[in-house]
Amino acid sequence: MFNPTVARLTYRALLGRRRALILCALPLLLIVVACAVRAMNGADDQVATQLLGGFALATMVPLIGVIAGTGAIGPEIDDGSVVYLLAKPIKRPSIIFTKLVVATGVTAVFSAVPVFVAGYVLNGNSQQIAVAYTVAALVASVAYSALFLMLGTLTRHAVVIGLVYALIWEALFGSLVEGAKMLSIQQWSLALAEKVAGTGADVTSDVALPAALVLLVVITVGGTILAGQKLRTLTLAGEE
Amino acid sequence: MSPDPAATAPAAQRGQGVIHNIGYRGYEGPRLGRSYARRALFTQSLRGAYGLGRSAKSKVLPMLLFAVVALPAAIVVAVAVATKADDLPVGYAEYVLMLQPVIGIYLAAVAPQAISLDLRFKTTPLYFSRPIERSDYVAAKHAALSAAVFLFTAVPVLILYVGSLLAKLDFGDQTTGFLQGLVFCALFALLHAGIAGYIAALTPRRGFGIAAVIVVLTVPFFLISALQGIPLSDGDSSSTLVGWLGLGSPGTLMDGIQSKFLGGTSGFPTGATLTNAQGISYLVVFVLLAAGAYALLLRRYRKAGL
């Protein structure tokens, strides 16, 4: 299933040249802010959950997921160079699987690692908060990558639709409409974080853990299969 | 022009080829000049921002986002009418700030389309072969983007105003609020269009442009909001600090300006209002950012090769 050459090409497309620097900016920002807050305010569990939950998991992870997930396949389909890849005797689903692995890896490295570091800086992993949010970020990066990779094969406006989902559905509607939280990768991964974190830590999710796990698996596996199917019947559209 | 038979007949007899002088007509009509070209560029970019004059597929997204930003205004009005409230549940500027993510996504979709595509398909040299200067191009694009965002925010504000008059709310109050809301929309549009335009001009790739614009417009906002939410042990210094922190992102900057100068309610977590010194620095930062983005955009087009 895993094709090293496709993986190398995807990796280079995502992180080649200056792109790695752009992706680095967000995690760096998180760590710098974490250091500043710690220096000004001292260690505080509530501040840690607020910063990790309100900024890292709500904004940073989905954004990196959008960039890595759609970036793994979108530009290739956009400029038509995907035909050279599709012309090779490689199974389409295995192309998708490989791209998913790379996108997940990139998202995880650029989101889970800084979350872990920032968590340690903020309160020294008291009440397992740093570990809890790292687990949530890891799980979320798998689901986001699968979802946005699928979007990348379905539409040319994958970036915008992904952003609409991440920012309007999860952030805006999620805070206004209770029901919207049920369909939010952020809340599903928070359910896992709730389980890991200590009872005194204010990490809460609106979704029960079993439901969250099932939904996470469904979106990841379903998204990957659908993307594979879509790639098998891909027709290249011209520039509008 | 038919060839003169007298001149061609001997040539045909000699059995040689002829070159007919069919004449060259120079263009003698009116030349519309620089300001016309600038105006045309402005209107075309503005229409393009809403998908007018483009394919049906590219109308979907701007129109959909426009509906998303305008519909809640109608709902707010309906609520105000149904509950017979004395005031709208949401202020004019407050409404715009609430829907910031939608505006951010609209800008992210529109700015690269208006600016990056010219770079990607190398059409800028064609523009500059016409009688327009670099400054005309930048001014037209910047004005078009600003106008697009202004329309995007001012129409919901107008809906709120008309609705409030229909609901027989106090005319004087609502008119002042509406005018302040319009000023806010203009300032908001100027700042955000400037920033988004400059970022879009940095990359010829549309996908990257979209991601970069949205990152720059929303990440600082969420970050600053999260930081402002952190309670400090000392309550007094905490509320001034919230004010200073607000300088850090375009969204919170606009929030501070509307709550200080345009009679709105502050959206800051503690509901903190700004001190006078903070108010002035908010204005200074606003001018610096708006003018700086424009100057940078102008600089971006200085090099001929781009």
TrEMBL record, chain A:
It holds the Pfam family ABC2_membrane_2. The chain crosses the membrane at residues 20-40, 52-74, 95-122, 128-151, 158-177, 207-227. It comes from the Bacteria. Keywords: Membrane, Transmembrane, Transmembrane helix. This is ABC transporter permease subunit.
TrEMBL record, chain B:
The chain crosses the membrane at residues 60-83, 103-121, 142-166, 178-201, 208-230, 279-298. Keywords: Membrane, Transmembrane, Transmembrane helix. This is ABC transporter permease. It comes from Streptomyces iconiensis.
